[in-house]
Design a protein that fits this description.
The protein is an alpha/beta fold. The protein is built from 5 helices and 6 strands, in the order ββααββαβαβα. The chain starts with 5 loop residues before the first strand and ends with a helix. Bound molecules: ligand AR6.
Length: about 170
């Protein structure tokens, strides 16, 4: 059943021993603040090295796209780095770009046969996407993808702040 394939947790995503955690990165993939900084600090230099290799090949990672690296010293096996949209008021394709971050991350998980994927609340920190609207995009995109695909088996929404956690709780009827 679809419902058992989506979990909600409040916590620090760097602590999760899942197949992949998703990073809310920026186009340079060179680390930053928020969850990106926490992931790079916890994973160590191997993550940065792999990100540099990717950037050498592709130049930059545009908003909506996703790439995959090892998990370095994290308990997670892999990190999927995706770049959310900066919120400019909602008229610059932000919903579509945010949907693409979830879709492309899940596609990568499927390609690599990863069964469990944990997402932070992409774009809702430094990039200022309104939390309620971002959560609606995240939940509907995950539900659609899981409805059409058997892999990944499980999506875990990891909310760091209580406000996001409460929004997801209501949206997921938990
Ligand atoms: N575990 C889970 N979620 C977290 C953690 C954590 N350890 N730390 C923060 N969050 P943000 P963005 C939540 O700002 O808005 C970086 O500098 C946080 O509460 O990390 O996509 C990048 O390099 C919020 O709900 O990412 C980019 O430049 C969510 O993660 C830019 O920030 C996302 O907040 C990306 O901005």
């Amino acid at each position: 059943m679809l419902k058992n394939r989506i979990e909600l947790v409040q916590g620090d995503i760097t602590k999760f021993g899942v197949d992949a955690i998703v990073n809310a990165a920026n186009s340079s993939l060179m680390g930053g603040g928020g969850v990106d900084g926490a992931i790079h600090r916890a994973a160590g230099p191997k993550l940065h090295e792999e990100c540099m290799e990717i950037i050498k090949k592709i130049g930059r990672c545009p908003a909506g796209e996703a790439v995959i690296t090892c998990g370095g010293k994290l308990p997670a096996k892999y990190v999927i780095h995706t770049v959310g949209p900066v919120w400019h008021g909602g008229h610059k394709n932000e919903p579509e770009l945010l949907e693409n971050t979830y879709k492309n991350s899940l596609e990568l998980a499927k390609e690599h046969k990863l069964q469990s994927v944990a997402f932070p609340n992409i774009s809702t920190g430094i990039y200022s996407y309104p939390k309620g609207e971002a959560a609606e995009v995240a939940v509907s995109t995950a539900k659609n993808f899981l409805g059409q695909n058997e892999i990944p088996e499980k999506v875990i929404f990891v909310c760091y702040d209580l406000e996001n956690y409460s929004i997801y709780k209501r949206l997921l009827n938990l």
